[in-house]
Amino acid sequence: MHHEPPSGLSTERIVRTAVRIADTEGLDALSMRRVATELGAGTMSLYRYVSGKDALVELMVEVVFGETSYPVSVPGGWRTRLEIAARREWGMYSRHPWALRVIATPQPPLGPNVLADVEWAMRAMDGLGLDPMTMHWVAMMVSAQVQGAALLLVNELEAERRTGVTTRQWRASKTPMLLEILESGQFPMLSRLYAQQDEPIDIDEWFEFSLRHLLDGVAVLVEGRKKGA
Q1: What pLDDT does residue 1 have?
Q2: pLDDT of the residue at 27
Q3: Do domains 11-65 and 78-164+199-226 have the same CATH topology?
Q4: Domain 78-164+199-226 falls under CATH 1.10.357.10
Q5: pLDDT for the residue numbered 5
Q6: How far apart (Å, rounded) are the C-alpha atoms in residues 162 and 25?
Q7: Are 121 and 139 in contact (CB under 8 A)?
Q8: Which of 101, 70, 63, 102 is nearest to 86 (CA)?
Q9: FRET pair for 21, CA 20 to 30 Å: which of 92, 124, 154, 167?
Q10: What sign does the dihedral 109-110-113-115 (CA atoms) show?
Q11: What is the Cα gyration radius of the chain?
């Protein structure tokens, strides 16, 4: 006969606690034991609800992918819908940096919320004359652009948590060495850039720039198909 589980223990509470730990301390800090400690429960009692850490991470991904819903109707065409998809994924990595490493892999979790993201991006291009494979490639391309930018975001957050040094502080500490290298005259393009802009990259601004120009490229593809190219 089973003992009664600790009061209030549930899969949902376990997953939400795990998300909170990963958000503040990173995925490496997460373990079944750590979650149990946070919940004031025995580690073994968690296994009644979740089969192990891998299964827990999959459930965590489902929860964070389901945090914000897609709008029911979207004014504007395919481009607006793809922008919504990209910004939604970007926002998720901003809130949950750990999720990038779980999603940006050829073997991501395949729960309904994760699949709904791909479905939405593909549906954005429905009726444009693209075959399903091309639609899928475009969806993956937009997502890969988000993930590439998010890698900078996530690494910045993790470096600050690990070292306590902000990017601005790090940049300031490297400035003398950088100026010395630029003064050699070997890097005229970088010298011009530095003279104009000596602040660290604004990652959000760069993300918007890269997304805009990526979608310009998709527009060329879409217009080509419409003309029968």
Answers
A1: 43
A2: 92
A3: no
A4: yes
A5: 52
A6: 10
A7: yes
A8: 70
A9: 167
A10: positive
A11: 22
- Show the tokens assigned to 188: 């005229």
- The position carrying tokens 């291009």 is 125
Q: Name the DSSP letter for residue 75.
A: S
Q: Quick one: pLDDT at residue 63?
A: 95
The confidence score (pLDDT) of residue 4 equals: 45
Residue 13 identity (one-letter amino acid) = R
Q: Which two tokens stand for residue 194?
A: 């530095």
What kind of fold does domain 11-65 have according to CATH?
Answer: Arc Repressor Mutant, subunit A (1.10.10)
Q: Mind giving me the DSSP string for 127-176?
A: TSS--HHHHHHHHHHHHHHHHHHHHHHHHHHHHHHHH---HHHHHHHHHH
How many CB atoms sit inside 10 A of residue 61's CB? 24
Residue ranges of the chain with per-residue pLDDT less than 70? 1-7, 198, 200, 225-229
pTM value is 0.85
Q: What are the boundaries of each domain within the chain?
A: 11-65, 78-164+199-226
Separation of alpha carbons 107 and 117, rounded Å: 16
Q: What is the pLDDT of residue 198?
A: 63
Instruction: Specify the amino acid at residue 151.
Output: L
Q: Which two tokens stand for residue 220?
A: 């060329």
Burial of 134 (0-12, 13-18, 19+ CB in 10 A): middle
Nearest one of 63, 54, 64 to 10, comparing CA atoms: 63
User: Which token pair is 187?
Assistant: 């890097």
DSSP characters over 22-73:
HHHH-GGG--HHHHHHHHT--HHHHTTT-SSHHHHHHHHHHHHHTSSPPPSS
- Structural contact between residues 26 and 18, judged by C-beta atoms closer than 8 angstroms: no
